[in-house]
Amino acid sequence: MPPEFEGIRVRMAPSPTGPLHVGTARTSLYNHLLARHTGGTYVLRIEDTDRARSTVEHERDIIDNLHWLGITWDEGPQVAGGDDIGPFGPYRQSQRAELYAAEVQRLLDAGSAYRCYCTPEELEAVHLEQEHRHEPPRYSGRCRDLTDVARAELEAAGRRAAIRFRVPAEVVRFSDLVRGEVEFDNALLGDFVIVRADGAPLYNFVVVVDDAAMHISHVIRGEDHLSNTPKQIAVLRALGYREPVFGHIPLILNPDRSKMSKRKSQTSITAYREQGYLPEAMVNFLAFLGWSPGTEEEVFTLPELADRFEIEHVHKAGAVFDLARLDYLNGVYIRSLTDEQLALRLRPFLPAALEDRTVLAMAPLVKERLVRLGDVTGLVGFLFESDATVATWYEAAELHPKGRGAQDAEQALNRLQAAIEPLPDADWAADLLETRAREVAAEMAWKPGDLFKPLRVAITGRTVSPPLFGSMELLGRDRCMARIDDALRKLEAEPVSASPATDR
Ligand code: GLU
User: Fold this and answer.
1) Looking at residues 266-292, what average pLDDT do you find?
2) Which end of the chain has the smaller Cβ count within 10 Å, N or C?
């Protein structure tokens, strides 16, 4: 770390041009972990210079989801009408125009930047020529050294000027925390625009001004920004700023190793949240997209990650987004919850009318099977849907025990009904129901599994379900009896040709 900086100061600079992206969440997490690991300071800055594409809704989505993940910052913009937090605000670029104007003027005065009057059509014509000659596209330098007279003429003709940075033709080297020594020949760049003709200052300029003004010591961001870094180093040198340490973390890839994109993968954190991924699992998963502790351990809480995370151990190679791993971790975290905790997490995914104690009673039934909280309705929908609805979920043939037909299904259901109906209310409990059902299986000399199948389908509407007898306890005698009656009616109505059915 350059000695001039007081402690480590890192930042996260999301653009509110879309909802919080998985890649941005991972970058935020790494910055958070670096700050917490080193006792440094973490700054959130909203990069909303692109006025046309930035929205308040996206900013809210970003901030809300960072909160949800538990990624906290020490300095950042005011939210919900409060004040900016920290001494270097405002923390939204849209509110920092004066500073940018002053710094542009310094560049113009020093001759490090100049006004460029080229029209989009003129620039396009040059690009086409370059393409034709198989040259890389770059600014021709046409307005680089205009005389005062020529400039006055262009202005008199009503031309509006963009401002271009005069890139020194030199090789820029920096030591990247992740990628090691990096070298770029800035002579290949061409002068780039830092303020558009409409007055809007652009990313490669404002990011440098803000990182310096906010005393950022370490710039940790995605590898997609690697090619911006030599431009930014050139600008910061021209402005006389200190150079931060850079670290570019690997791209996140689709399973086919292409860059993760909206087209191929779900990229917004909100979408994962809505499906019922736990923030603990998401954070754990994101941390491993490009980093590992160097051991076999794979389950880490946020504080444990902060304890172990070393930016130098971030990998260079792209990190594949493996949904199966996220599912696995989500299951691990779901199973680590108490029934009460799980019930609270399930609440938003279930009908509001469902009583709290019913949700609590469901929790242990689904805990072992849930991959995502949102799957709960599929698993336990039979508990709150009407008997009539559940009866529409299956065909009569699905009631047939393995290798047997409709008559056997009917017999099984009748025997089971007769065995459990007389149970006193106090005994309408999973273990007693199971004992009775197993007794019936023994009397009929059937395998218990064969006998339970028609019962499971009658009660839950599905051939795969949460524990059957626990579900029956929760459903209560009357509804169980009604559902067995529905199933028997379905069997009676079944065309004879449908049996014996093949097992499904
Ligand atoms: N606003 C940029 C982005 O969202 C930040 C890049 C940076 O960290 O410098 O990609």
Assistant:
1) 97
2) C
